[in-house]
Records
---
Amino acid sequence: MRRPDPAILRLIVFLGGLIALVALLIVFRKIFLPLLLGLLVAYLLDPTVDWFERRGRSRTFGVVVIVAVLVIAIVAVALFLIPTLGNQLERLADRLPEYQKRLRLQLEPVFSRLEARYPEEIEELQARAIESVRENFPKLAGSIGKAAKGVFGNLFGFVLALLNLVFVPVFAFYLLVDLPKLKTGLLGLVPVAYRGVVVARVREVDRAISSFVRGQLTIAIILAVINGLGLMLLDVPFGLGIGMIAGFANMIPYMALVVGLVPALALAWAEHQELVRLVGVVAVFGGAQALEGMVLSPRILGKSVNLHPVWVLLSIIAGGSFFGFVGMLAAVPVAASIQVFTRHWLETYRNSAIYRSEPQTAPARDDPAENGPEQG
């Protein structure tokens, strides 16, 4: 009996261990969430630490400098953002009764005309609405009770989530310092016969993921600043907050228009009742999208990443549906990895004999009818 190739056995063991590790992370994703977030932060900041190492500084020195700069930047931004956002939220809360009054005054004449023209239909619609409320009120009350119970029941979970957020920078710090050792240790687990191929593919996946994530994050920050300042200049209620949310939502295709443009238009109209303001809001978002499409994405992302927006959107939806918040975080890296390996599999398939082989044709046979009758 022929013994199996040891290299094949090592590959099977390696792939089995990798699948087991991924399964373990999925099953205990809530426990490993701070570690995964810390790993993401370390991965994003690793090139900056490498820059310090190339200039003769220790890795620990680079990590300390980066952490100090980030803390100063976060504190400086928070000192500006938190008071500004708080003032805008307070103003919005004070103006909500006025918005409701304006809306009622604008809609009452419309409802009056509809009621005068269709009295029977309106009366029937009101009766159906009242009956629907009566039928569904017990269910609604039960749902509210369950939600309230869940809020108080999850108080410990909320405290645990806050602790997890505290652990994220701690994990990120130690992972940044020891990331080269971690990479070397993982590489040592790969069978020697396949190490060259694995390293090449991992580097390609790393380039795709790093350029996409870092590039999209940079673009999101730029768009958040542009949208926020533009809406503030137009005096849109809570304009800075909406602009920032829209900027970071731009990392998910088409989401900026949903969470940014629609509420900005509604609040601008509720506050000013001017068509010019609406045109200004559309101009801010349209200009930001044009800048992103024609300048920022080509220059920051370049041609290193070719992830279609629909592919990104589907991967985020699938990751969130199956694995929650952790799945949404891992969706884009997994999508980029699948695209890289799929491209190589297709290239291998096109170069294979199965794809390139010519179809075999049956040898031509002499037709007695064409050659005429046999002569005896």
---
Amino acid sequence: MTRLQFISVLLLIVTYSIALGAKLLAPADYAVQFRETPNQPPSAQFLLGTDELGRDRLSRLFYACQTSLLLAPAAAALSTLLAAIVGTAAGYTGGWFEKLTMAGVDLFLSLPWLFLIITVRAVLPLNVAPAISVLVTFAILGCLGWAASARVVCAGVRNLRSSGFMLNARALGCRRSRLLAMQLAPNVKPVLWAQFLVSIPVFVLAEANLSMLGLGVAEPLPSLGGLMRELENFSGLSAQPWRLAPLAVLVVCVSAFQVLSRGREVEA
């Protein structure tokens, strides 16, 4: 592990510790309004100040990390699972089935997937409960973000299908189920793990885009994208730089995941 990867792991450990312990670490609940102190600058009571409704920004940032950084891996796991099913089936079967499946994947990839996600989310009801909006947002991300990973998995399985150890296992009479479970799966695992790590920052950014457009996580539940809607007013940022805290957390987490995913891609 390089020094940069080690630093990335430490940053992610700290960030995810905050996300997991948001309820214990946050000074207040994310929805509590201190009506007598709206738009307050940082102070001993409010380390990042308060928003226009008097809600503690630091508390909302902690809960936003919990929302965005814990559910993005869930969406990435769903996406990777779909990619594994489609890619393995196409790569292992080969022939016309692989060509037909990859043609469908190419057609799916030809669509601008972020705009597709925005379109699908915009069609769905917007006035839903915050918890439902979280599930809907990340389920859409997971179900629509699998195509690129499926191509990588298909290529890897195709190469493994004709490898020496697979041919040897077939010659020894290994059943197909055992062949897939004992020979193919362990060798595809590094590819799937790399695709999983690559997908997490993509989905974090996608959720941020949706929430900034008002199509993601519903208020009052915070997310990193939802908090960054305050950045639309650029004129006040120079006087209130603490409002950049959600953007700083997003940049740090995405960069850390990118460093780790590149390392896994090289290993794979």
